[in-house]
Every structure is written in C-alpha cells, then in structure tokens.
Design goal:
By secondary structure, the chain is α/β, with parallel strands linked by helices. It is built from 14 helices and 23 strands. The chain starts with a strand and ends with a helix. The structure holds MU-OXO-diiron.
Length: 399
C-alpha cells in the first residue's frame, strides 16, 4: 500500500526504508537502517527527482502511482547515478515510456552503461533551467558530491533545494520526514557525521565549492536522497558541513585509538586517556579491533587531537590499526595534532611505521616523541604515558 506524504504544496515524498540491510554499499553497517528518498513535484508538468534502491522499489512505484493519480509523468531528473538511487530507473522508463530524462552529460553516459538507455534525454549543466509551469527549475553542478555526474536541482519560487547525497544521513525515517520532527541532533547527527566522512569525506574541496553556490540561494526546504528533509534550522547543519568539509575539528577533544592483543597496549592507551581527562579535557577511547572503521573514521575527524597506540605485529603495525590508518589516509584525514604509542616485546616497530603514515598526511603535527612500552606498562613507561597525556591536554587547552 502506498505510504507517500505531501511535504509541501505539490511536493510528494515517495521514498522508503530498508532496516534489514547489513552493510550499505557493502561497506558500512547501518544498524538504524537507511532511507532511499525520491520526490515528485507536481505542476503543469510533473517531475520525479530520482528513483530508489531495489530494496524499496515496490513501495516506490505504489507511491508514484498514487501521487500521480490520473496525471502523467513528464520528466524524471536523474541527479545521481549510484544504484541506490538509479536501480529502478529501467523499470520506471518502461512504465512511463514518454517521460523525458533530464540529467547531466556524464549521467547520460552512465545511463547507457548501466541500462543501455538511449531514450528521450535532455542534458543540463550548471545554470540551465527547466520550466514546468509555475516553477522554473535551475540546475547546479555538484561534481564529486558524491560521484562526478551529480547535479542538484533548485526551485527558486519555493526555495526548495534537492541536494542529492549532500545533507543525507544513514538511519531510516520513522514517519517523521522532517529533521525538526525527528529530533535530528539526538537521532541522526552521529549517523550523519559517519555518512559524511565515509561517503564524501575525501572530497572536501568539492563540497566547499557547492556550499558556496548554495550560500547564494534562498532556501526554505532541503530534500536529500537519504534521511530527513530540512525545513527548520538548516543553518546549524550547514555549519557542520562547512566545518567537516574544511577538515576542521568539530570540537576540541581527544580520541584515543588502540590495537591491543593481550591488554597491555589497551592499558597504555587508557593511562594516556586518564591523564587527559584528569585535566578536564574531553577524551574517548576506541578499540580499533572491535569498532567498525567507519565509526573510527568519523570520530577521528570529530576530534582535534588523536592518539594511536598499537602493538607490533609481524614486524609491522597491528592489522586492524594498519587498516584504520590506511582508511584515514584514503579519506584525506588532515589538519590534526597526533601522538603515537607503540608496544613490542622484542623489536618495537609500530610507532615509527604509524608515524610514517600519519606524517604523510596534510598538516599533521606530532605531540612529543613516540612512547614505547616493552611488553607491559612499567613504572617508567607509565610515567611517560602520563606525561604524554598531560602534554596533549595542555595542547588542547592552548589553542
Ligand atoms: Fe546515496 Fe552516492 O549514493
């Protein structure tokens, strides 16, 4: 049965939720599910903005049929070709053979590659417009947010911005389509941060570029392809995006990441954390072997100071820590103060190797020398770890 909502005059939310998916993009756990959003804008011409993932296709077509009523579908705007939004495209054009596809040149090529589609298409680029009656849609190029073909769609008459993946989040919707209804900060902010850094974190410059364009628009409604729609307090979320995409820390705090086999490196990490906390600085500790990398990544970007403690393993960095560091580098982690703690029973190596990875990132500043633990924390290394924690806390407070 259809379950669509009219979220503004003539604008229908047609999306659905998947709460059974284990890994979004086969990579990211989504224990609170994910929504795939699609919108129908009704005017003299009726316009669909993106389709949905196969997981919610039945509901989507029921919603579309209901929202259209006896009207026809004139346009489908393909803003983003990733299959979580385009998977049902082929079925859509089969059902509505007269529909005109409006999309970017790159997306048109992808439609051909994915579906062999070469039907009625109108290619649009930055600044192009499409009159659909009372409203004239304007297109905004948003390359690499999150793929190169992405366009946003702006409706100046109503101040509506259809923002593709931008401003989206993991987490299913619970009937409350609007962020202010849903209690965004409590219910979604952690997922939104994890979504941002894992999905588009690498492309900060491109996000900044599109945010500059958005700053010039009069916006009263933001409709992303995942998560709730924004009609109030969007400025607060926009500020998060400005901070995140500039690779600035969200808060002055410390994140301590450790990889420990028998608990001694954990002990070292927690001694550092206690010394930080004792000085009134917020600190959080993570075991990189049990916390998913997508969460570690988001927490590293959130903090201003990061500590990495790893045992030496196979003459290298412990595997879960090495994987995490590589993921940070792949997502352009930068602009942080860091410290390194290593453990080794006969040939400690992890510290120098971790420092090599971290110092290869942009604008990274190490606090102190690496601190070495030999097998278990002893009196000397405990003192060194406490001094490291004190130095980190002082640095957090100093800036
Ligand atoms: Fe939600 Fe880049 O797809």
């Amino acid at each position: 049965m259809q379950n669509c909502q009219e979220i503004a005059a003539g604008l229908f939310y047609l999306g659905g939720n998947d709460r059974r998916i284990a890994l979004f993009e086969s990579a990211y756990p989504v224990p609170r599910g994910v929504s795939y959003n699609s919108y129908l804008l009704k005017d003299e011409k009726n316009v669909l903005l993106d389709t949905v993932d196969n997981a919610v296709s039945d509901l989507f077509f029921e919603n579309l049929t209901f929202a259209l009523g006896s009207d026809t579908l004139d346009y489908v705007i393909v803003q983003h070709m990733e299959p979580d939004h385009s998977a049902t495209f082929a079925r859509l054009v089969e059902r509505y053979p007269d529909v005109t596809v409006v999309t970017s040149l790159k997306a048109a090529q992808m439609l051909k590659n994915y579906f062999g589609f070469a039907g009625k298409t109108r290619i649009v680029k930055e600044g192009d417009t499409l009159s659909v009656g009372r409203r004239t849609l304007t297109f905004v190029a948003a390359p690499m947010v999150h793929w190169p073909e992405v366009i946003f769609t702006y409706v100046p008459e109503d101040g509506i911005l259809f923002s593709a993946d931008a401003f989206g989040t993991f987490g299913a919707l619970s009937g409350n389509v609007f962020a202010d209804w849903a209690g965004f900060e409590r219910e979604y902010l952690d997922d939104a941060r994890r979504y941002y850094f894992n999905i588009v974190g690498k492309y900060g410059a491109q996000v900044q570029s599109v945010l500059k364009k958005a700053a010039g628009l009069n916006i009263s409604l933001v409709c992303p392809l995942h998560g709730p729609v924004w009609r109030e307090d969007f400025g607060k979320y926009l500020q998060k995006y400005l901070t995140w995409s500039a690779y600035e820390p969200e808060e002055r705090s410390v994140a301590v990441f450790y990889a420990s086999v028998y608990g001694h490196t954990q002990n070292a990490a927690e001694i550092v954390a206690s010394a930080v906390a004792a000085r009134g600085v917020r600190v959080k500790v993570y075991d990189v072997s049990v916390t998913h990398t997508s969460e570690l990544l988001a927490e590293a970007f959130r903090a201003s100071h990061v500590v990495f403690a790893s045992t030496t393993y196979n003459n290298g960095i412990f595997v879960s820590m090495e994987n995490f560091l590589n993921d940070l580098k792949a997502h352009a982690f930068q602009n942080r103060a860091y410290a390194v703690v290593e453990n080794g029973s006969w040939a400690p190596q992890a510290g120098a190797l971790m420092d090599g990875v971290l110092s290869s990132m942009k604008n990274m500043r190490r606090i102190g020398e690496k601190t070495t633990v030999l097998s278990a924390v002893g009196a000397d290394s405990a003192q060194a770890l406490r001094e490291l924690g004190a130095a980190i806390a002082a640095d957090v407070k100093a800036e």
